Amino acid sequence: MKHFRNLMTGIATTTLLATGVIAEDLTIVHGSVGRDQEVLRGQLDRFEAETGHTVTIVSMPESTTDQFGQYRLWLSAQSSDIDVYRLDVIWAPQLASHFVDLTPHVADIVDDFVPAAIESQTVDGKLVALPMFLGAPALYYRTDLLEKYDQEVPTTWQELTEAAQVVMDGERAEGNTDMWGFVFQGAAYEGLTCNAQEWINSSGGGRIVELDGSININNPKAAAAIDLAASWVGGIAPEGVLNYKEEDARGVFQSGNAVFMRNWNYAYALAAGEDSPVRDSFAVTTLPSGGEGMSSSATLGGWNLGVSRYSENQEAAIELARFLTNYENQKERAIVTSRPPTLNAVYEDAEVAEQQEFIPLWKPVVDNALPRPSAATLRKYNEVSAAFWTAVHNTMSGDGDAATNLSRLENELKRLRGPRW
Ligand code: GLC
Question: What's the 172 CA to ligand 1 centre distance in angstroms?
């Protein structure tokens, strides 16, 4: 288990401070990309100084799918090693029973949060986790290259495909052989579910499983969207995109080797950072749509802090979740990591607007972001998503066309559902 360090032995240490406060040793587990962990550590240091508690970070691999697998093991073993889990927005229905209901512990602050963020973490009236930050992806593009080749900012996937090809061909002809047209998250994991849901939904192909639980994936619009995406692989996108997660895509774009990138908000602060080769030559816009009369879809992402029912330090753990989501810490996170906050007021903060203009700019996109079918499929979401990303990944790897693979997927989803989700 080389990814995990500092695992506790399960024996909680308790110290009584001179102030009369009991100091606990807490453990928080989370995955991180970009500067997430650095900012978290700084905030934990302040928490430690203010409260006398200590907090150890257990770092997880980048992939949310890998995290989910490990979290399920710890939780089903009722392990007390971890006090606070950073949970993906999609997991609340599946993991609800393992977490403390935060409702009574946040009654004084809950109205300050973006309502949809709280709703996404509420399962049968129980608040499973406190929203830490939200996510709604953008299309990142190279302003200098679009200008050089006289290309418009694309508003449809077809336009993106064409513009990417023109710029890539031009740059390669000039000797820039590392240049690619479009990078995104194409590995077989939850990130591909997010990307593919966007391609399909923005093409009028539905949302895999609709809010009422009906399966809606085997349709010609969905198939056309996936076939178009399959045509990118080895064309405007490298073959390797089939193994890309968030940081792989960012690496290519930020080093100057891609015209377009689909990525989450965190990539903005990094691509705009002092040491970024593209800092003065990129911009963001909403993701393209399937065509006229259709609108862009951005998958709702985000992370939330849940307090384990098996924690022996629940009171201090709740204090920690409240601390990490307070105004000051959300503001810092918004400015340094360009993560959309979960507190309404941070979007209105003048300093945030000045130092990280992406945040207020992106508020409408965050507000309209498209949730994945995790509420509709309840305990089966992970299996639904895995079946979906597998069908998409197979198609993009040349293993069957979209119509055939989506028709198989429909049958698989029906079997998974049984009489009800
Ligand atoms: C981001 C999103 C999360 C999503 C993941 C997929 O971390 O915030 O919701 O599941 O990307 O890779």
Answer: 33
Nearest CA owner, ligand 1 atom 9: 301
φ, ψ of residue 216 in degrees (nearest 5): -140, 80
Cβ distance 190 to 389 under 8 Å? yes
Structural tokens at position 224: 């056309």
Task: Give the tens place of pLDDT for each residue, 212-256.
Answer: 999 999 999 999 999 999 999 999 999 999 999 999 999 999 999
Q: Is the pTM of this model over 0.85?
A: yes
Residue in this structure with the two tokens 């509709």, named with its chain if needed: 376
Fold identical between 2-128+301-367 and 138-298+372-417?
Answer: yes
Domain ranges of the chain: 2-128+301-367, 138-298+372-417
**CATH of the structural domain 2-128+301-367, one choice from 3.40.47.10, 3.40.190.10, 3.90.180.10, 3.90.1010.20:** 3.40.190.10
In order of 50, 52, 91, the CA distances from 19 in angstroms are 12, 9, 39
- Ligand 1: which of 62, 95, 194, 393 to mutate, judged by most atoms within 8 Å of the beta carbon? 194
Q: Identify the H or E element spanning 49.
A: helix 36-51
pLDDT-above-90 percentage for the chain: 94
Q: How far apart are CA 413 and CA 189, in angstroms?
A: 17
Of all helices (H) and strands (E), which one includes residue 222? helix 220-232
Pocket of ligand 1, beta carbon within 6 A:
64, 88-90, 135, 190-191, 194, 264, 301-303
Distances (CA, A) of 288 to 113, 160, 282, 298: 29, 8, 17, 10
Fold of the CATH domain 138-298+372-417:
D-Maltodextrin-Binding Protein; domain 2 (3.40.190)
- The token pair at 1 is 């288990």
